[in-house]
Amino acid sequence: MIVPRDRMPLPRTFFDRPVLEVAPDLLGRILVRQTPDGPLSLRLTEVEAYDGPNDPGSHAYRGRTPRNDVMFGPPGHVYVYFTYGMWHCMNLVCGPEGTASAVLLRAGELVEGAELARKRRLSARNDKELAKGPARLATALDVDRALDGTDACAAGETPLRILTGTAVPAEQVRSGPRTGVSGDGGVHPWRYWIADDPTVSPYRAHVPRRRSS
DNA sequence: CAGTCGATTCACT
DNA sequence: GTGAATCGACTGA
């Protein structure tokens, strides 16, 4: 059986590079999620880099904990976190083991299994919104903490896998400040997206939450 | 052990 | 544009 070029798995060496190199290179790649109801495939259109323990915006900033343990592990694995009491977001770990860098997957286009994603994303008004935003992306793909630590480069049957897809030419890649990041994380243009892509999420600056009475 | 707040989203004005 | 929802991780005493 012949495997199309764009359906080849991304090798682990792809992720074993500096995160600022990997992040823009992830645009246009295909994330495949296997569920009991069938597969979903997502073409990545927006990502964000988190550069290890020295990055104040990173979950790794205050050292290794049970939550962020996977970030400190080998590249090509999935780091999933739970936030705001109701959402999950997913990352791909980059750099050599111990680097604790990762790329947050912020948005994408469903190229397969959109009908499955719609069942989990009832508030989406159209298919462009199915995975427009990191928590929406995780919801659409049915990703939660149970998948934390999954190897996205493993051979054989895996719940999550990343494929080659089609790399986006450098002239179509845009970058800017990260969305919703506290600390001085907003000073770095470490958010990357595909120019003019309708599935990219809107930019929002970080706003500290006001205390409730 | 209580207080704070988050790599967000949604409903509503 | 504003505020609520909701809970677990982390902080500091």
Quickly count the domains: 1
What series of H and E elements makes up the topology? HHEEEEEHHEEE
Number of helices: 4
Mean pLDDT: 94
Taken as a percent bin, the fraction of beta residues is 25-35%
Which topology does CATH recognise? 3-methyladenine DNA Glycosylase, Chain A
Class of secondary structure makeup: alpha+beta
**Amino- and carboxy-terminal Cα gap:** 63 Å
Question: Would you report the number of β strands?
Answer: 8
Low-confidence segments, given as residue ranges, are: none
The percentage helix is 10-25%
User: What general form does the structure show?
Assistant: globular
User: What is the CATH superfamily classification?
Assistant: Methylpurine-DNA glycosylase (MPG)
Class, according to the CATH hierarchy? Alpha Beta
Question: Mind telling me the C-alpha Rg?
Answer: 16 Å
Largest sheet: 8 strands, antiparallel
CATH architecture assignment name: Roll
Overview of the molecule:
The chain has 213 residues and is an alpha+beta fold. It has one domain (5-194): Methylpurine-DNA glycosylase (MPG) (3-methyladenine DNA Glycosylase, Chain A), CATH 3.10.300. Helix content is 12%, strand content 27%. It has helices spanning 12-15, 19-25, 114-120, 134-140; strands at residues 30-35, 38-51, 78-83, 87-94, 101-112, 160-163, 173-176, 191-194. Strands 1, 2, 3, 4, 5, 6, 7 and 8 form an eight-stranded antiparallel beta sheet that branches. The longest helix is centred in the first third of the chain and has 7 residues, at 19-25. The chain is globular. The protein starts with 11 loop residues before the first helix and ends in a 19-residue tail after the last strand. It binds a DNA duplex (13 and 13 nucleotides) through residues 48, 50, 57-59, 62, 65-67, 81-87, 89, 91, 104, 106, 123, 133-136, 139, 178-182, 185, 204, 206, 208-212.
